[in-house]
Amino acid sequence: MNSPISPIDQLTAKRHTLAHLLAAAVLEFYPDAKPTIGPAIDNGFYYDFSFKRPFTPDDLNLIEKKMLEIAKRDLEIRGAGNILGKAQSGVAYKVGLNLYFELLEEAVAELKRKSAAH
Q: Could you tell me which residues are beta bridge partners of residue 49?
């Protein structure tokens, strides 16, 4: 069966979902960690966190196990969806992604200023 989504886009979507899964796992262990940016990239995915200390290899092992646990619970991890609108932002604010949205709003405002200047 052929998918209307290219294999590259499918891989990017999977990596995007894994980044959200990573953030969910980190927040379960470290609720005071502040997720910032977490994109899919060419060779995987990552998530930056504002946290009081660097994560250790032991932390990363625990986080990986938690990611698997969450995935096994069949937890629905949603992508950003309507990221520039308010439809998704209420959920994100509830899980502590305020900093992400502040950074995003700043980036959008900067793009709008640059666009208006041209």
A: 35
Contacts of 18-22 with C-beta under 8 Å, sequence gap 24+, read: 18/45, 18/67, 19/45, 19/46, 19/47, 20/77, 20/78, 20/79, 21/67, 21/70, 21/71, 21/77, 22/46, 22/47, 22/63, 22/67
pLDDT band at 84 (very low <50, low <70, confident <90, very high): very low
Sequence-ordered list of residues with C-beta below 8 angstroms from that of 108, at least 6 positions apart, any chain: 84
**Contact yes or no for 37/21 (Cβ under 8 A):** no
Maximum separation of any 2 CA atoms in the chain, in Å: 50
CATH superfamily of 1-79: Threonyl-trna Synthetase; Chain A, domain 2 (3.30.980.10)
What is the average pLDDT value for the chain, to the nearest integer?
A: 75
* Contact present, 41 and 106 (Cβ < 8 Å): no
